[in-house]
Every structure is written in structure tokens, then in C-alpha cells.
Amino acid sequence: MNLNLRGTVVRGAGLGRELGFPTANLELRPCGALSDAPCGVFRVEVSGSRVRGMRLGVCNVGVRPTVESAGRKIVEVHLLDFDGDLYDSELSVRFLGRIRDERRFKDLSALKAQIAKDVEGARRTI
Ligand SMILES: Cc1cc2nc3c(=O)[nH]c(=O)nc-3n(C[C@H](O)[C@H](O)[C@H](O)COP(=O)(O)O)c2cc1C
Question: How does pLDDT run across 58-96, given as a tens digit for each residue?
Fold first, then answer.
């Protein structure tokens, strides 16, 4: 895939941290990049002003149908093996491959189980 997105980390609902998979919600630049971004779950490589080197991540581009009935499109990234404050910092996200479509899960624990699989899949792929 040849796609790179960049933007500033803004505050989300904070539910990701509760789920066990905290995400950095991105406000993209240029803002037109959001409408062009393909929806789905992706394996990505992330760099940024507060991220040392390159980190593997999983990225969701979509409307989060499990948690919002009329959500607007967002881009959020979970960085693997990373625990730090990224709010207001800059991130660059390079898309490496598509994992799956975004789906509506019956509850949060089903969503959590799927994200855990997404993470394991992203780790295994070289
Ligand atoms: C790898 C990954 C995959 C995701 N897949 C879905 C999905 O299929 N369906 C969905 O409704 N939300 C999906 N989400 C979004 C979660 O619902 C979201 O991260 C959670 O609601 C936390 O949002 P918040 O950080 O804005 O609070 C995914 C998030 C990640 C990081």
C-alpha cells in the first residue's frame, strides 16, 4: 500500500484505554486527507515527535459502529508496546497492509477480542 497520513493527536472519548487498547486519534493535515483515507483496519508503521524510531501499530479508519450510531469518520492508531502521552504531538502513519473491514460488534468484549487478534496478526506479519 502506498499511503501515508500525518496529523496531530487529539483527545478521543478515552474508551480505548478502558478497552485495553489506547488509541491516538488523529486530526489529519491537510484536512482533505480524511475524506481520501480508505476505511478499514490496517497494519501501520508510526513515527513522531514523541515516538522513538519507528513503531508498529494498528490503525482504524472509520465511524466506530460498535460504540456510535452516527459517528463521523476518524483515524485512530494503537501503537504496539508503547505507553506514553501523545496528546498534541505529531504522528506520521505509513500504511503497510489491510487487515479487515470495520464492523459492528455485538458488545465491547467482542470488539476487544477482535482488536487483540488484529494486534497479534500485525505482530506476526513481517
Ligand atoms: C485496531 C483497531 C480496530 C478497530 N476496529 C473496530 C471495529 O471493527 N468496529 C468498531 O466499531 N470500532 C473499531 N475500533 C474502534 C474502537 O471502537 C475505538 O478504538 C474505541 O471506541 C476507543 O475510541 P476512543 O479512543 O475515541 O475512546 C477499532 C480500533 C482499533 C485500534
Answer: 999 999 999 999 889 999 999 999 989 999 999 999 999
Q: What residue ranges do the domains of the chain occupy?
A: 3-124
Contact (Cβ atoms closer than 8 angstroms) between residue 60 and residue 100? no
In this prediction, residue 1 carries a pLDDT of: 83
Domain spanning 3-124: CATH superfamily:
Riboflavin kinase-like (2.40.30.30)
What is the distance between the alpha carbons of residues 125 and 110, in angstroms, rounded to a whole number? Answer: 23
Is the distance from CB of 40 to CB of 100 less than 8 angstroms? yes
* Residue 78 alpha carbon, nearest atom of ligand 1: 31
Mutate which of 39, 43, 67 for ligand 1 pocket (most atoms within 8 A of beta carbon): 67
What predicted TM-score, i.e. pTM, was given to this entire model? 0.95
